[in-house]
Design brief:
This protein is of the alpha/beta class. The chain has 19 helices and twelve strands.
């Protein structure tokens, strides 16, 4: 029987049971005290998560030290061996989780190198993450900031924070913990895995009214507290690969990012999903149900990390600088100019010398060529009509090395485009029977010309 099937047999109460710090089982154990790191330059601690099942509420761990060698490979450090000698390589994973405002009421049991057991206080969310990430038959080595760093030692904490880019870059995988699962998270992850990732059926999925609950479940999952953290940009952007864990459910970050990006782009370009929700009486026929989905933390994170991954001119060290820059500025979405150098545009410079109108014409011609190039290989019947270049660029997205197109009714696209972007809809029309010819005033700047 598989691990997920065994977990489903346990009740929610059994899966969520963890021990508190003052539990009778741990009352004889002393509290764990950190030993200062001898060489803080390239040395960190790692946590060995002892294997067990979800039915066991006690979390057993072991802390040991590793050091990054000259090639930045983590190697085991033994106390009895000279620090200059190279130890065996250690492969580890890194945990990304939300600290929250909980108190340190719960505990894990830690074993030192002399097989002496201690207890350490921890937050309930972290203890639950360790319980769900624990394998039944094999140990797991993880780096966790709240456990592997002595939080009471300010000098060590400040130095370890500076090493985070190296820690997440050298980790084999980043485990994203969103919290315990519920009915919405189960439905959302199943919806992504079994339906959204089958991209050839995505058009019918958007039209199906029966999927209203599933889209709402995905929206709820995207509002988890983890997506509001500032550190997640650096942790995801620097990872070799990442996997999202929500209780016993798990999904690769790549699949989750594709689902979120499809969700945001289809809703932003066509509002089809909000129209489906408006027809469902369970959602009170509210228009624009997903109007602000592009402003959620999950949407901004996927967009920001996607720009880093899709940039071929940026390396891991530069990505670390970009991540630190986002953290210092407090803005998730970076500007494109922060990722690559600004290219010179001699054609536009020459056009600007001739006049503002010629510059605008050259830029519009170039955007038109890019929009037409994006539709190469797509059947003409599935393309939006001429003039909808913004929608072409928004709807045609590149996933997994191939172009995918969301089919839209051309008449609907053109009608919505004309209603939203037409100058006539923004400027009141003259009420008289005749209208004067529109002329550009020679003494007014270009921004005030009548179009």
């Amino acid at each position: 029987m598989s691990e997920s099937a065994l977990n489903r047999k346990l009740s929610r109460e059994e899966r969520s049971k963890v021990l508190k710090f003052n539990d009778k089982t741990l009352e004889r154990l002393e509290e764990y005290e950190f030993t200062p790191l001898k060489d803080q330059k390239r040395r960190i601690r790692l946590l060995r998560l002892i294997s067990s099942g979800l039915e066991n509420p006690l979390i057993d761990c072991e802390l040991f030290e590793v050091e990054f060698n000259d090639k930045y490979i983590p190697t085991r450090v033994h106390p009895e061996v000279d620090s200059n000698d190279q130890g065996e390589r250690v492969d580890y994973e890194a945990l990304s989780w939300c600290w929250g405002k909980e108190t340190l009421e719960y505990a894990i049991r830690i074993r030192d190198e002399d097989d002496v057991q201690y207890k350490m206080s921890a937050k309930r969310e972290l203890v639950l993450a360790l319980k769900y990430l624990r394998r039944p038959h094999r140990d797991r080595i993880i780096w966790i900031d709240a456990i592997c760093i002595d939080q009471a030692n300010h000098q060590e904490r400040n130095h370890q924070v500076q090493m985070m880019s190296m820690i997440y870059t050298r980790a084999e995988k980043v485990c994203v913990w969103l919290g315990e699962d519920d009915s919405d998270s189960n439905m959302a992850i199943t919806f992504i895995t079994n339906e959204i990732m089958h991209l050839e059926r995505f058009d019918s999925i958007c039209k199906n009214k029966a999927n209203a609950d599933k889209w709402q479940a995905l929206l709820t999952l995207m509002q988890r507290p983890w997506f509001r953290r500032r550190w997640v940009v650096q942790e995801i952007a620097l990872s070799r690969r990442a996997k999202v864990y929500c209780g016993g459910d798990k999904i690769p970050w790549k699949d989750f990012a594709v689902a979120v990006e499809l969700f945001v782009e289809v809703e932003s370009a066509t509002h089809r999903l909000s129209e489906v929700m408006q027809k469902d009486e369970r959602f009170f026929h509210v228009p624009g149900w997903f109007e602000y989905v592009s402003q959620l933390g999950a949407s901004l994170l996927v967009d920001a990390t996607g720009k880093v991954f899709r940039s071929t001119e940026i390396g891991r060290d530069e990505a670390a600088d970009v991540g630190r820059m986002w953290l210092s500025s407090g803005v998730l979405v970076p500007k494109p100019l922060q990722l690559r150098k600004r290219e010179s545009r001699p054609d536009v410079q020459k056009a600007e010398e001739k006049g503002p109108g010629s510059s605008r014409r050259i830029q519009s011609d170039k955007s038109g060529k890019l929009a037409r190039k994006a539709t190469v290989g797509i059947p003409p019947g599935n393309r939006p009509q001429r003039g909808c270049r913004r929608l072409e660029a928004a709807v045609v997205s590149k996933f997994q090395g191939r172009l995918l197109t969301h089919r839209m009714d051309p008449s609907t696209v053109r009608k919505r485009w004309c209603q939203e972007k037409s100058p006539a809809s923004r400027r009141p029309q003259p009420s008289g029977p005749t209208t004067l010819p529109r002329m550009r005033h020679p003494q007014k700047p270009a921004s005030q010309w009548i179009r």
